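Field log, afternoon session.

UNIT: design team B
ACTIVITY: writing a sequence onto a fixed backbone
BACKBONE:
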């Protein structure tokens, strides 16, 4: 038998046992479900016995699995506590936050100075990307994402809701026909999100069932790019009010029509539920909740 301790395989076994799901274990470990399944397979081959039974309710421990799971769970929890203690020994802490470029530029970064003033011993590192992250692989402590709050294997905290509003540059609106109702927006070039769905859905929600050409126009994969295109007078854009507020306040953009489109989506703070929370993380969550509350108020 190999003398090398299969720590990754044992971690995979422990997380599957903790969450009852290969998919959730993969989310916690920051790898693909296939990688977790492969680690489990190698561990079962090494010990010569199955550790789980797949059922309709999820992954259930076998008799062999039940014998070793409690001790392994306790061991990994002790490792996490020990790592947290080592990190806490440093007076200065670094917190890595992942969010989309548009949310970082329009909402988070302008407010971040207040957190630094309150907690000068914590360095916040902002990773602005729309890509799906893996917490462990990418060394990310917490992420801010827009969704419905369903994040398997992760803890989440609702921050604030947002609505889509139609905006344009003042010069573009001055040149074109007046916009008095939603259908009037179709007389202008429409700037699209990456899946070209927002304008169609917004118009349908306001009673226009077959909006002609509502899915045509330049498309952008991030709202910050949409904002810049709208500021340049290239067309009308549907932007989350949270992202467009600074531009509207400064007069660079104006509401084309006072018809916001509420949705069930909101911004959420998400982080691995199985990892012991850093003191810096607790302070950041509390500060972010206060800022979000002020923003919604």
């Amino acid at each position: 038998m190999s003398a090398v301790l299969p720590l990754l395989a044992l971690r995979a076994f422990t997380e599957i046992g903790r969450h009852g799901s290969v998919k959730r274990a993969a989310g916690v470990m920051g790898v693909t479900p296939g990688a977790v399944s492969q680690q489990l397979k190698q561990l079962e081959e090494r010990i010569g016995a199955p550790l789980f039974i797949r059922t309709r309710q999820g992954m259930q421990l076998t008799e062999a699995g039940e014998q070793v799971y409690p001790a392994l769970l306790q061991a990994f929890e002790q490792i996490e506590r020990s790592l947290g203690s080592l990190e806490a020994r440093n007076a200065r802490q670094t917190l890595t936050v992942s969010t989309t470029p548009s949310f970082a530029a329009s909402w988070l970064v302008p407010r971040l100075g207040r957190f630094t003033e309150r907690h000068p011993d914590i360095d916040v590192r902002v990773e602005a990307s729309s890509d799906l992250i893996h917490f462990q692989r990418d060394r990310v402590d917490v992420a801010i994402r827009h969704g419905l709050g369903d994040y398997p294997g992760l803890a989440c905290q609702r921050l604030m809701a947002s609505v889509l509003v139609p905006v344009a540059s003042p010069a573009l609106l001055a040149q074109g026909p007046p916009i008095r109702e939603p259908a009037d927006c179709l007389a202008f070039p429409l700037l699209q999100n990456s899946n070209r769905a927002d304008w169609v859905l917004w118009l349908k929600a306001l009673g226009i069932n077959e909006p002609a050409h509502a899915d045509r126009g330049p498309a952008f994969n991030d709202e910050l790019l949409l904002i810049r295109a709208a500021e340049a007078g290239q067309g009308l854009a549907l932007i989350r009010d949270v992202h467009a507020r600074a531009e509207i306040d400064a007069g660079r953009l104006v509401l084309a029509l006072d018809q916001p489109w509420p949705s069930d989506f909101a911004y959420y703070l998400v982080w691995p539920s199985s990892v012991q929370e850093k003191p810096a993380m607790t302070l950041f969550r509390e500060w972010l909740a206060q800022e979000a509350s002020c923003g919604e108020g």
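LOG NOTE: The chain has a mean pLDDT of 88.
NEXT ACTIVITY: expression trials, pending approval
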